[in-house]
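### Sample
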Amino acid sequence: MHAAPRHDAGPTRTDRALRLIRRSARRTISTLVCVTVAAGTLAAGTVAGPATPAHAATEGVTLSVTPAAAGILRPGEDLQVTVTVVNATDVAVPAGQIDLDLNRTVLDTRTKIDGWLDVSGTEANARTGPRIGRTGSPEVAAGGTVDVPVTVPAATVGLQGTRGGFGPRGLTAVLASGGTTVSTGRGAVVWSPGTDPAATPVAAVMPLTVPPSASDLIDAEALATYTGTTGTLTRQLDAVVGRPVAVGIDPRILASIRILGTDAPASALGWLERLKTIPNETFALAWADADVAVQAQAGAATLLAPTDATYALRPGRFAAPGASPSPSPTRTPEESPAPTASPAAAGAGRGSATAGLATPSPGESGSPQPTPTPGAPAASPVPSLADLTAWDYTMSGFAWPLAGTAVTSDLGVFAASGTTTTILSSDDVRSASSARVGAVGNAGDTTVLVTDADVSALVDQALSAETDQGFGIALARLSATLAADAREADGHVVVAALERGWAASNGRLGQLLDAIGALPYSDTAPLSAALGSPAVEVQVVDHPEDAARVRRVADSLSLEAQVAAFAKAVERPELITGQQRLLLLATLSTRWRETADGAATTQDGYVAQADELLSSVAITTRQNTVISDTTSLLINVSNALDQPVTVRLSITAGSGRIRVDDSAVVTVPAHGSASARPPITSISNGDVVVTARLTTEDGSVQVGDSAPVELFIRAGFEAVVTTLFVAAVALLFGFGLYRSIRKRRRARARQLAGLPEETDD
């Protein structure tokens, strides 16, 4: 299997896969015209005909040659071939004739098969074997496609006797019109006389995943769709259940269903129960099938894994065993009908696209809980992260990077993460000796499960076929490849790896596996058979990830580390870091490699969300007036998180006008603000700008951005005001005393003089 495209550039298939596809019939939206023309009267062994037409192949007209019966021909059977003419030009291809040649020499290796099918690498007039059939070809309209069936009697095939050894034979179809060759196509048929060699075992491994999303968990609506009758998870399970296919399971799917508890869609619960019963070999993929190679190349010491899911748990969803159903709960006034994302868990309104999941309050394990009505069942203990992801896998310790993305140093990171087996494409390894690389290799202390790149590409081509004819082309080529392997008779197991996103195809996996099992020279096998085969020493052929992508992922890893440090300031950091890790893993999903725009948008969205989260605690004060020699500044701090945050506020003086005596610790309530009062001493009057900085309580990590605060220092003003106030009080008291004494003296003088007492008007 070849590498999925990097999201920064390039097509969606590797060069080898593209080459295979170019050999297949390109389909158009035109109506398929099937012309049944009987083969002409055939002479014994060859067909007489006119002189070989001039070779002037028309650009844009292609032929594909597809033998029937999965490309197998047995003694006594007529050779039935469909020649597909695809006219991708703007003009019609005139009616003409198609000649069919058979090269009776065995193509006994894959290299010979590749060389035969590569029409561009073959001289136009090279001998292609005796002509065994000819039929008329109708006009092919511009942009049209025509299938022309050709039947060659068994007696004319001429593979009995000394020419009848088992193996692939080459077929050539030549379309000529007006004495000029229009196009040439190649195919192969496997002659199976009944004395076939031992069957080549074919093991298959597939990823069980869902389309990518930027959310931390898969929401209930998406799960209902994916596990519906025609949903992608249902179709994937239908294709492999009971068949010898090892299944790599994305644990995000398991956790997303289980975390919904009683709110999980019935179809999702049924699908999960069905998954438990399949007899297939299973192993765990990375969460969200995250790209393990890019993590290693971006500097991660170990592969990322979920840390906590408490933020998304609602205890009310988990009824105690045996409890009877109760009426629907009523919501508290504070609880909105739909979950809301906050910076504490979802940041900038992103990331928590999980229907029914919300950010928990500080004192809870989940979002605000409904107030149960009387008679509601008691809640059972909420599941842990281990409970949510638990599965009885038959194999463990696997890492599966995309083909064409790994380098040697990645294996060390995988091993440090507990990986014992790494799945690599045969294009990504080479033998460290002269021994042929089979299904298993040893790269140092790491076991490498080697998938067959050629076979995997053909499997992908078959699964991606839009028509039965396209499927038949890929199957015939696969049949010839496996026949060549059978002739070598070395007994090695061929491992076919399905592409990520294979389930978006036309649901042909079951049909393909059945066809492989029906081939007389191949058979399906469990993955354990491949893992048990002899190992050879291998070296990794470095195919690094795109440098720009690695830089972006490295930036995201650094940003997540900043969020983890920031979370130390809150009461329950796991409510932040748990979701932040899941959001990051979602952006690393290998499925994003299918869409360049989606990958870039998701990565940018994660950065924006994390940046907003880091700015959710901020200093809001920008000015302060100081009128005392010794005082405390009043600095307001806001908190947009869903839980309280405790921070230390420190002041850095920008001049000698003040001296900062100490920092101040303040606890800011959720969605609120509070004031910190760091003590200072003013040295002289004037205006000065100081820098206010928030850190965690222990001072180890900065929280939010530093903020400038302008101080207007009027330290002597307090003394002047106090003096004036004291003087005013003294004067007022003295004046009152003076009036009282004077009044008494006057009253006494009047009394002595016999005058009447004065009265106040």
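Residues 257 and 455 are 35 Å apart (CA to CA). This sample (Sortase) is used throughout the tutorial notebook.
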